[in-house]
Amino acid sequence: MKVAVIPARGGSKRIPRKNIREFCGMPMIAHSILSAQKSMIFDKIIVSTDDEEIADVVRAYGVEVPFLRPRELSDDFTGTVPVISHAVKWIEDNVQKVTAACCIYATAPFITSEDLIKGLQELIVHKSDYAFSVTHYPFPIQRAIKVNSQGRTEMFFPEHYNTRSQDLEEALHDAGQFYWGTSQAWLNQRPIFSSSSVPVILPRTRVQDIDTQEDWDRAEQLFYLLNRG
């Protein structure tokens, strides 16, 4: 059984109610739901939430909320892996055995069904613990700078001061869209960022963190640009 688990906590502070706030014509979380449904690779799609209002919104899109997430997994400090582990265990205890589960973030409006399908294929082909979305940094991280305690700038890696950008190794970062994992990887709460994982590389034009109002505005502009015509 392949399942999608969409974690959607009700306590967002920087953008209140952002999981169900309208984004380009529909609740933010609906974009993730529709992409999961369109992929047609899931036997079950559920939302893990602690919030009754979120539960009501997602049920209108035909998604199950089979339990309300426990309080101890709904604070500001609980990571993704324990939340998905809890959901997978609940499904295995109450429905049937899970072979693979995909965590899909509720705030991932640029996710596509094609990427979800590719992620599952990568998980199976490489026999990995996880396959998850990543993208390239737009600038070489080896030439990053910081502000020191005196308010002056200095390089994180001063040894690369004279290194040409094209000679530096490219770096990737988590795209924050989806994480495919085997049942055992989730249940044993194995780390996602490890040599047991494989990347699904996305173009930077379809990746945008949404943590602030500025992020939100930029994401809406990008969404309309990508979907015009």
TrEMBL record:
GO MF annotations, alphabetized: nucleotidyltransferase activity
EC number: 2.7.7.81
A Pfam family of this chain: CTP_transf_3
CDD domains: CMP-NeuAc_Synthase (cd02513)
Gene3D superfamilies per UniProt: Spore Coat Polysaccharide Biosynthesis Protein SpsA, Chain A
Alphabetically ordered keywords of this record: Nucleotidyltransferase, Transferase
Superkingdom of this protein's organism: Bacteria
InterPro entries (UniProt xref): CMP-NeuNAc_synthase (IPR050793), Cytidylyl_trans (IPR003329), Nucleotide-diphossugar_trans (IPR029044), PseF (IPR020039)
NCBIfam families xref list: PseF
Name assigned to this protein: Pseudaminic acid cytidylyltransferase
Source organism: Pantoea trifolii
Gene name, Swiss-Prot/TrEMBL: pseF
